[in-house]
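Minutes, project check-in

Agenda point 3 was the complex the collaborators sent over. CS summarized: two entities, 946 residues total, and the question is how they sit relative to each other. Sequences were read into the notes so everyone works from the same version.
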Amino acid sequence: MSATGIGAPVRRKEDSRFLTGRGTYTDDINRPGQVHAFLLRSPHAHAELRRVDTTSAKAAPGVLAVFAGADMQVGGLPCGWLIHSKDGNPMAEPPHPVLAQGKVRHVGDPIAVVIAETRAQAKDAAELIVVDYQPLPAVVAGEDALKPGAPQLHEQAKGNLCYDWHLGDKQAVDAAFAKAAHVTRLDIVNNRLVANPMEPRAAIGEYDRASGEYTLYTTSQNPHVIRLLMGAFVLQLPEHKLRVVAPDVGGGFGSKIYHYAEEAIVTWAAPHVGRPIKWTAERGESFASDAQGRDHVTHAELALDKDGKFLALRVATIANLGAYLSTFSTAIPTYLYGTLLAGTYTTPAVYVEVKSAFTNTVPVDAYRGAGRPEACYVIERIVDTAARELKIDPAELRRRNFIPKDAYPYQTPVALTYDSGDYFTTLDMAMKAADYAGFAQRREAAAKRGKLRGIGIATYIEACGIAPSAVAGALGARAGLYETAELRVHPTGSVTVFTGTHSHGQGHETTFAQLVSDRLGLPLEMIDVVHGDTNKIPFGMGTYGSRSLPVGGSALVKAMDKVVNKGKKIAAHLLEAAEADIEFKDGKFSVAGTDRNVAFGQVAFAAYVPHNYPIEELEPGLDETAFYDPKNFTYPAGCHIAEIEIDRDTGDVAVVRFTAADDFGRIINPMIVEGQVHGGLAQGIGQALYENAVYSDDGQLVTGSFMDYCMPRADNLPSFDVATHATLCTHNPLGVKGCGEAGAIGAPAAIMNAVADALAPLGIGSLDMPATPERIWRAIAAKTMPQAA
Amino acid sequence: MATVTLTVNGKSVTATVEPRTLLVQLLREQLALTGTHVGCDTSQCGACVVHVNGDSVKSCTMLAVQANGAQVTTIEGLATGDKLHPMQEAFRENHGLQCGFCTPGMVMSAVDFAKHHKSPTEQQIREWLEGNICRCTGYHNIVKAIKAGTEAMGRTA
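CS then shared the predicted structure for the full assembly.
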């Protein structure tokens, strides 16, 4: 292993600018002549708009323009995945207007935009817009929305139902339940979360009359996707006249995948006012307009035989999609959830039904893990519950049902084929690191201090690098799922990588440079990685679903293959040898078995100064682009173990130990991988103990600020004990699997299993997330002092 | 409108501001010091922490006019030329940042912490960070970085 190649904990190239305040986030950009937009948003969850009068606002100081829905007749925001219901009908796909058309459907739904010289003037003027609302009854919970008589959001979605989807063999599952020795049943809620990257969303729209080109600077995880969705569907702008730049982006976690109204508004309005227009969300707007995550209500049943072998899993889920279909919302509770319900186990039959509902809440879409945390939570909670009911050690029950190490490729009953894995080893590693064997003593010691101590295991599997395009297309995806890379070798041998993935904290500028350093033998200083600009990058699907390395890294490997292959032809000419005899290693092209060689830089120079060059057979230049369409998902997996202590008097949960053993395949930069795990764990623990998007019955987001929505702070979390064990992905050239989401997938179940373990001696059953002091205190009080409950 | 004169990163500046202008708005919008970030609207997140007369302050909680006559240091003023401040270097070495958005506030807050804690415990660091939210790192490496940075500052002091 070289100091800068694959496997090295290289310190990040991007850090210098971030540490010195020289990052360039969207709100840091100020275009000449720039003006500011402020959006008037609905204070009602559900209302008819009888009248929107912008006359006074237009006359306010500094105001250039005010546009309401009637003024902005453009396409609606599109949904990227068509789901079919079990009866074969396509999902209900109601329009998602950029500015409200006659009706608002959630608090925060944009009604009008004010554009003024300063942000303060725009905000002041927005207060002068007169809106005559006719409030309508609202519905906020998915299960309530599907009940007869519920307030109806959309004409196109009868009964507020988007689709009624299913997957798996129902008959096989019914038959297995009929012969089961034991059935475990569980009702659980997967709480709604707000992604809350620290950088609020922002967008700047600009129009150049000379070239007719529009430019959008935006806080996006995937600028090409935004260009396609906004250009083709909303504003009807062709790609060659629309540039989308996603510069430094301060975290995404899924919430910056989607095409949002504000992007279309500032782009559309720029030529109308003849000035660049900036919009930056206040945090309160982030809460009211960034797509939120999770929000499932599930009933699950697990059938077991007398030896504790899983026979079948039956799952029924209601997913809350919010008021409108966000870009990939429909795929999350279906193909990214139902397909994962086999988990790490040999359960031979699985059947899942998902009804997705429209409600008067902010739209819901992918948030770190997206569907897979919800699946893991169902499986790992019910497995743990079964272990408790059957008095089998939870680790032992898992071992009895794990997919054997020699069973790969393994076809699950819910469509996926796992290519590799070893769940036994990660379980053993985690148990050892967590001193699982010594837990009983620690529990006893805690009891002497008056604390309830619990330990919880969760094993997980996820599917990353969603693929292949053709399969996803057959399942309803309206986009390809490949990735691109261009490797531009410059005449003096330095290189620039153009990747279609996007880094918003993941450190691609370092990891991708390591791939190049490893393969081409170049020092990191000679490698730059460029991302986030549709005018620079050939194409790209961006970064989400832990896809950057498995898909984008693989594209880069393909581009490097092309460069090396062309380099061999050039070197063969320079060395007067046969191409078949040329080897490339450590930055040198050599004639096999001799000491004759030319350095990579010499070959690059020859390619651009082709004086001594096979010009008849070979074009000059050394610049190659590759597209990589994966053959399968990758399947990271692992085991998380949480140990917690509950204060009996306050119900407060302290996470005293957290251990993770993960299989991410080959690891390029272990320092970055550990950092990704830490961050995912914090979000998973946040979901389990702290975070909850709570709506009042009339649709107000009660937890609409950092004062109400509990973001995990440093003193809420422990240091983490993380380790990895690699089984390589068998179908991508790097053997990598992806590590971005794992922490958020395994941690909630591990924590909640630990909470259940701590409370089981008091006879307390399953609690829902977040396990706040109040919930736990009430549960304890109900058992120990019934008069207080 | 009001006129304020203050020293920012060692340079005297004078600006005309609306009375409602926050210090962070003055820094970002008028002085083009965009390293100081705004991550919330309730003074919870700490992305905007700067030093005012040597103490860490959330620059969204202070009006620009209140900083009249003050010495302000922002993240841009921490390094010496190309040489990173020991706390910046510790964040880099310990991978204490991912997306970089909370980082300026974290580093400025940590530098103030280090002045008051010579050999801190993990718990002291975690409690100090109560006013700085990070969504990327899970704080694990930030805590390590602040411990290392504090010790490094102690050595160079």
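Noted in discussion: Helices of chain B lie at 23-30, 86-93, 103-116, 122-128, 140-156.
Follow-up: revisit at the next meeting once the mutant set is ready.
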